[in-house]
Design goal:
alpha/beta, binds manganese (II) ion, 8-stranded parallel beta sheet, globular, 327 residues, 8 strands
Length: 327
């Protein structure tokens, strides 16, 4: 007899079947074809049309789904159980009719996310290259600018490059210009590497973002970075964007623009756990490029980061329900 996948008995009882069996969804969460009765939506965005160098992140969602089945249901460090506290579903991949037209694809991504947020669903996305964060923010920040905790080797506040305004090195400059981000409530953590232009990330500084470079991170530690993030983001709505190239290439080789000397996976997990209590309204994990990966290290560490972000979103979602009161 064929099991009915929509019922996902395995998900209700994770011990019912081994975790490596069945169709891979994010964390073995039930897949949903509709947007009804969902609190947090896990969404793949297999798009890498904004990449300026080595491509391959279009394969990211599949690889992260696959590796995420290794993860379990409860965060043993914090006790948070996101699947118990919120209705978490895998919404599949953001479908693109014209995946090879950068701006058309971004408009399609924006349309999809506007439906998701209109349904009251908190989106947690897996890219894809970092250009996807701009159309996602157009939906998430539709009612006003949000703050952002951005963990990345790069600020991604560059300008036009080779005639393109919307490549993966520029989404957060565009987001400030479009008033989707409040730069005074944005922190960028893990910044490092070489540049061709000493003013490459000058927009971040001039607009008022807090840039926390990798040297400061190493000298003062993850707890300092977390304290700074809490101070900068404050009490308003915050988006969390995690570029896997923030991690050291020894722990995340599968990415297009690696930079030596980055954050360890453990530091990233501890940094994220220290952000509990911020009002997160969405998040993404981007730039996992499986063709460059070694032993699934990058997609596995990415899935582990994704779980921490899911825990943050679930707690923030719950806190907002409490504030709204009954009815
Ligand atoms: Mn980066
Ligand atoms: Mn980036």
């Amino acid at each position: 007899m064929i099991k009915q996948p929509e019922k996902y008995q395995d998900f209700r009882d994770p011990q019912a079947h081994p975790r490596y069996t069945g169709i891979a969804t994010f964390f073995r969460a039930p897949a949903s074809q509709t947007l009804q009765d969902i609190d947090i939506g896990l969404i793949g965005v297999p798009f890498d049309g904004g990449v300026t160098n080595r491509t391959g992140t279009r394969h990211g969602p599949r690889a992260v789904r696959e590796q995420s089945t290794l993860l379990r249901r409860i965060n043993s460090a914090t006790g948070v159980a996101p699947f118990r506290d919120a209705r978490v579903r895998d919404l599949g991949d953001c479908w693109l009719e014209q995946p090879y037209e950068l701006q058309t694809a971004q408009a399609e991504i924006e349309r999809f996310y506007r439906q998701v947020t209109a349904a009251g669903i908190v989106p947690l996305s897996v890219g894809g290259d970092h250009s996807i964060s701009l159309p996602i923010l157009r939906a998430v920040a539709a009612r006003g600018p949000v703050g952002m905790v951005h963990i990345d080797a790069h600020c991604d506040t560059g300008d036009d490059y080779m005639g393109s305004r919307f490549h993966h090195g520029a989404p957060f400059r565009r987001a400030v210009e479009e008033k989707l981000l409040d730069p005074a409530r944005v922190i960028q953590i893990g910044i490092r590497g070489t540049t061709n232009d000493p003013d490459l990330w000058g927009f971040s500084q001039r607009s008022g973002m807090r840039v926390l470079p990798m040297d400061e991170f190493q000298d003062a530690g993850w707890h300092h970075a977390a304290a700074e993030a809490r101070r900068v983001a404050g009490s308003g709505p915050v988006y969390l964007s995690f570029d896997i190239d923030s991690l050291d290439p020894s722990q995340a080789p599968g990415t297009g623009t690696p930079e030596a000397g980055g954050i360890t996976a453990l530091e990233a997990l501890r940094l994220l756990r220290a952000l509990r209590g911020l009002d997160f309204v969405g998040g993404d994990l981007v730039e996992v490029s499986p063709p460059f990966d070694v032993g699934n290290l990058t997609s596995f560490n990415g899935a582990s980061v994704l779980f921490e972000v899911l825990c943050l979103l679930a707690e923030a979602w719950q806190a907002r329900q409490g504030q709204q009161g009954p009815g």
